[in-house]
Amino acid sequence: MIELKILGSFITASATILVALATYIWKIQREKKESNRTIIYLLLELRNVFINSVINTDRAIDGYLKLYLEKLNDQAFSPKDKSAFEAELRIALEKAFNSLIIDMKEELRVDFSSQFDSAILELSKHDPILAYR
Asked: Minimal CA–CA distance to 45: which of 111, 106, 97?
């Protein structure tokens, strides 16, 4: 009778240990998948940002110049030398757009590099070789 109680306790303890071990392994696998998903999401987000951040400045400047000149014509402003005025305005707009793009790229780099670094650190806990690449 005592041997049966000891055997029952041993079986119960063994089953509890197996369930705890299985749960722990499942938790580790889930965290690994979540970490990998985060890295893949950030890489895709970076790819999307860099693809969309390539702004065609010539097209933007042409559109803005056309709109600005229309507004000036609506206000009955006409420069003496229209082509020189447009050339000077184009140079000023190019400088402004280039400055804006440089600022945007710096903000994007700072914003994503911290997120990316933390995601790489998380990935290195689970898959150091993939994190190294």
From this structure: 111
Q: What is the pLDDT of residue 90?
A: 84
Cβ atoms 35, 125 nearer than 8 A: yes
Residues in CB range of 49: below 8 A, 6 or more apart: 108, 112
CA distances from 101 to 13, 48, 94, 133 (A): 64, 16, 10, 29
In what helix (H) or strand (E) does residue 67 lie, and over which residues does it extend? helix 57-74
pTM for this entry:
0.42
Closest of 15, 27, 31 to residue 127, by C-alpha: 31
Length of the chain: 133
Range picked from 24-28, 36-40, 85-89, 109-113 for highest mean pLDDT = 24-28
- Give the containing element (helix H, strand E) for 2: helix 2-52
Residue 26 pLDDT class (50, 70, 90 cuts): very high
Helix axes 82-126, 2-52, angle to 10 degrees: 170
Q: Which two tokens stand for residue 32?
A: 């690994």
